[in-house]
Amino acid sequence: MATTSEEKTTKKKRRQPCDVCRRRKTGCYGLEDRCNTCVEFNLECTRFNGPMKRRTQSHVDALESRLQRSEELANELRSQLLKSHADCPRCTTDSPCPALKKSIQDKSSGLSNLHFSRPSKFDISDPLDGLSASLHIMRRTMASLHLPPAALKDSENFAIDLDELYLSKGSFIGKSSGATALNSLMALMNKQPPNGLHPSPAQRADVHDWESHSWCSNNLRPIHWRWRPWLFTPTRDNDFTFPSESLLTDLVDLYFTHENIYLPLLHRPTFERGIAEGLHLRDEGFAVTVLLVCAIGSRWSADAGKENSGLACGREWFEQVPPIQRGLMAPPTLYDLQYYCLAVSFLDGCSPPQTCWSLIGIGLRLAEDLGAHLRTVSTDTPSAESELYKRAFSVLVYWERVISAEMGRTCALQYDDFDIDPLLEVDDEYWEHPSHPFKQPPGRPSQIAFFNALLRLNHILGWCLVSIYSSSKKLAVLSINGPWEDHAVPELVSVLETWRARIPPHLRWDPLREDPVFFDQSVALHAAHSHVQILIHRVKLQKAKVPSSLPSFEVCTAAARTCAYMVTVQRHRSGGLAFPMNLRPVFTSAIIILLNIWSTKRSKAASSRNENTDHVNNCIDVIRLCSERWQNAAILGDILTELAGREVVPFHEKAERSDVNGPTELNCFGNGMYSDVVGLPFPQDNATREDDLMSVMMGFPSDVWATYISTLNATV
C-alpha cells in the first residue's frame, strides 16, 4: 500500500502539448524537450502559444446583458410601430384583438375604462410582446378593407409635379428616387429641366431640341442621350389575321357574356366602338387586345372552326400575340396591362400555373411603371381612362393572389404596397350617359359590385398567405414563439365573417334568383369564400397526424359541401354550361370531401359516406364540363377520378377527348408515374389515404405539370 501511495505522489503532471501538436490536434508524446512528431518531421518543438483561454463568467454575463438590452430595444421599437398604427385614422375598429386588449389591461393598471374605438384614448407606450403587436397590426390592416379610402396628402401627389422628370413619358417615380432631390434643386435654381431626363421614343429623333435648353446647352452630349435604336425594335410585325366579321362579333359577345362579368377588364361600348371604327386595323395595341378577346371567347364558341375546336380553341388568335412582343425600351401603355390580364385569363386553362405567375409579375411591374398602383388627385368627375387603368391593375392583383395561393408562393405586391380606389360600381352602359355620366340608376344593382366584393376577399386571401403560410423566419423576426396559427386563424376567421356579412343583397346565395348574371356571380363569390375558408383552416390540418379529429376539419368539410351544392345547382340551371371561374374551389372542395369519406369509412358511417360520395361525383361532373376546352380542367378531373377510386366513387362516363386519337383514359397515378407528387407511391388498387390527399391538396411541384402534359402529348 505504501508503494501505491508513493506512486501517486510522484506521478508526473500531464505535459503541455507543443504548438505543432496543438494545431494538428494530436497527442504530444516523447521526450520533454522534443516530441515524437517534431522529431519525425524535423520540426522545432516550441511551446510559445499557451492553451486557449476559457470564457470567464464575466464574459458570459456581458453577453447576457447585451442580449437583454437588445430585447428591450426590440420591444420599444414594436411599441412605436404599434402606436403608429393606432394613431392612423384609417385603422380604427370597435373590437381590437383580445390578446392586445388583455396585454394593455395588464400593463396599464391605472386606466380603468378603456375605449378601444378611439386608439388615441389609451396609452400603448409600454412595450408589447411580438404576438400582441402582430395580432393588432393584422386586425387593423384587415379592418381597413371595409373603410373608405383616406384623403391624399400633398406629399403623395409629388409624382404629378414631376412629369418632366420621368424616365420616359408616363413612367412613375416614387419618393425614394433621386429625382425628388433633383426637382428640389431645380426649384431652388429656378430652372426648368428638359422634357425628361431620358428622351422618350418621340424625342430621340431630334436632339437639337434638347440642346436649346438654357440649363444644359453647354453640357448636353447628344451621343449619350440617344438610346440605341435596336432597343426599340419590336420582336414581331403587325401582320395580324382577324376572324370574319360575323365570327368576330360572336366571339366578342361570348367574352363579355362569360368572362368580363367576373373580371371586368374592358369597357364594352368603347371596345365595340373601336372595332366598328376599324381601330384594330391601324392600332397595334388595340389589335392585340382584340385577338386575345377572340382567343378567350373561343372557349365558349360552337362555331370556331375545326382548327379552333377542343383544346386547340383560341390557338389561332393567341399565337399571333406571344408574350414577348415589344421592344425592351418601349414605354408601357394601357394596352400592355390589358394584354397581360387577357393572356393570363387564356393561359390559365391550358398551361402550367408558373407560366401565368411569371406573366402576372411582368404585368404588375409595368403597372407600377405607369403609376397605376397609386391613386391620383381626386376629381369630381371620373374618366374612362383612369377607370380602365384601375380595372387592369385590380385584375392583375386578383390573378396574382389566386395563382400565388395555388403555387404556395409569395405575392409580389402586398396589401400595403398599393393604394387604389375600388372600381366604380357603374355598369358599362352608364359610363357615357349624356346627362348623368358614371351614375348607376337608383335601385339597380351594378354588376361591378361582384368584383369589388371578390377583390376584398382576395385581399384576405393575400393576408392569409402572408400571416399563416409565410416562412418561419418572419415569426423569428417578430419574436413570436409558440403556435402562431392558434392566434392568427381566429383573426382571419373573424375578418372573413365580417366580409360575408357585407355581401350586397343581390349577391347573396339564392337558388331561385331570376337574374342569371347575378346568380352566376353569387355562385362564384360564395365558391371563392369557401375556398378561402378552407385555406385558412387547412394550415392546422397539415400539421396533424389525424386531420379528421380537429374542429378545423369539420369547418373545411362544411365549406366544401356548401361549395359542391352551389355549383351543382348552377350546373342544373345552366344546362351544362362550363364555369371555369369555379375550378379551383371545386377541386379543393372535392379533395376535402374525399378526406372526409376515408375518415367515415374507417368509422363505418355509411350514410354520411354516401352523401359525401354524391358531392364528389357532382364536383367531378362540374369539372368535366370544362375539360373539353380547358386542359387544366381535364388534368384536375383525372386526378380526382384516380384519387376517388372505383370502390369509393363510381366512375361516370368519361368525357370524350378533343383528339379522337388520344387515349380514352389516362392513369396518371396508378402506375406510380407521379408518386413524387404526393410523396408516397399510390396503391395499385385505386385506394388512397388521408396523407396522400393532404399532399395533393398542398399543390404540385412546377415540373409535374410539364411532365404530365409532355406525357399526354406523347401518347397522342
UniProtKB/TrEMBL annotation:
> What PROSITE patterns does UniProt report for this protein, alphabetically?
ZN2_CY6_FUNGAL_1, ZN2_CY6_FUNGAL_2
Which keywords does this chain's UniProt record carry?
A: Coiled coil, Metal-binding, Nucleus
Q: What is the designated name of this protein? A: Zn(2)-C6 fungal-type domain-containing protein
Quote one Gene Ontology molecular function term. Answer: DNA binding
Coiled-coil features, chain-numbered ranges: 53-80
Domain of life, per UniProt, equals Eukaryota
A single GO BP term for this record reads: DNA-templated transcription
Q: Which CDD domains match?
A: fungal_TF_MHR, GAL4
Keyword Acetylation present in the record's keywords: the answer is: no
